[in-house]
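Researcher: Please translate sequence to structure tokens.
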Amino acid sequence: MRVAVVAVCFAAVAVAAVAGCSSSNPSSSSNAVTTTAAPIPAGAAPVLLDKIRPAVAALEAQLGGAQQYFEVNATVTLVNLFVATDDATKAVAYVYDADGTLEPPAVAVPASGPTFAASQMTFDETRVMALTVSQLPTSTFLRFSVTGADGGGVGYAITAGSSTGTEFQISVGPTGNVLGTDQLTPTES
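Model: Translation complete:
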């Protein structure tokens, strides 16, 4: 129940932050809501956020050019890259580890959904997780994901875990503004 309350509180802060940004007069409210946080220095994010672009560069160099991706995500230990193949009907997974090694590809598996090019990843590495990390200091951050969005473009999401085993996903913009939250299936203990 505590996680649900945390998620609801976080969502309320996010809604308040969005509502707080709607006024063109910054002095119109005495209850200002912080919608930014101090940037996270390069290499200090709770996941390998700063390894995403090098991972993409290494993969595209190995494959001989730009690719289309279903998803690229960073965890605490590695970056996963899911490359769209066969007219986006299959995905090939690649792993780029913290030491900068691109592992051999997995076998292609059936896949579907929106894809994106690396050039569409416009997130600010120092800011995209900063607000969420500052607002949820006791959470464990599991993953930062970039996925293709319906209608084109990309979506960014941060997956966080609580001490009770529940995970939730925070959708953010490229500079870390919170767009929404979803509670995910509880993890097994």
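Researcher: Any highlights?
Model: The two ends are 16 Å apart (CA to CA).
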